[in-house]
Amino acid sequence: MASDPTRKRLVLSSKAMADAASWYCAFVLVALLLLTMFRDSSTLPSHVDNNNNNQLMSRPCEEIYVVGEGETLHTISDKCGDPFIVENNPHIHDPDDVFPGLVIKITPSHHA
After folding, report:
1. What is the residue-wise DSSP string for 12-78?
2. Could you list the residue ranges that cross the membrane (predicted)?
């Protein structure tokens, strides 16, 4: 039974090593999360032109549009510049019955 105390010390040192490793992993994970949260998002690669980026953000909606949560035909019409959404989408029978995920065709007017 002389090996019993040696075995207990070995188990305790194994637990201490596992505990230290888990704390190290937790520290690394928190550090990575903080780095991604506070990373400066305003830096763009040198090959990206800010003028092109602004044009992409201000361009009209795509021809196929998926309704998002809280959107109405009126807000989509204003956003996309299409005053004739109901007329161009015969599957919309009731303009008040718009739900997230509904796929509609957008035809932006060139006047907007």
Report:
1. HHHHHHHHHHHHHHHHHHHHHHHHHHSS-TT---TT--HHHHHHHHHSPPPSEEEPPTT--HHHHHH
2. 20-38
Q: What CA–CA distances, in Å, run from 52 to 41, 48, 66?
A: 17, 8, 24
Place of tokens 């092109």: 52
Amino acid at 99: F
**Contact yes or no for 98/67 (Cβ under 8 A):** yes
Is the pLDDT confidence value at 68 over 50?
yes
* pTM recorded for the entire structure: 0.45
Which residues make beta-bridge pairs with 64?
A: 105
Q: pLDDT tens across 35-49, in order?
A: 777 775 544 455 444
Q: Can you say how many angstroms the Cα of residue 69 is from the centroid of all Cα atoms in its chain?
A: 15
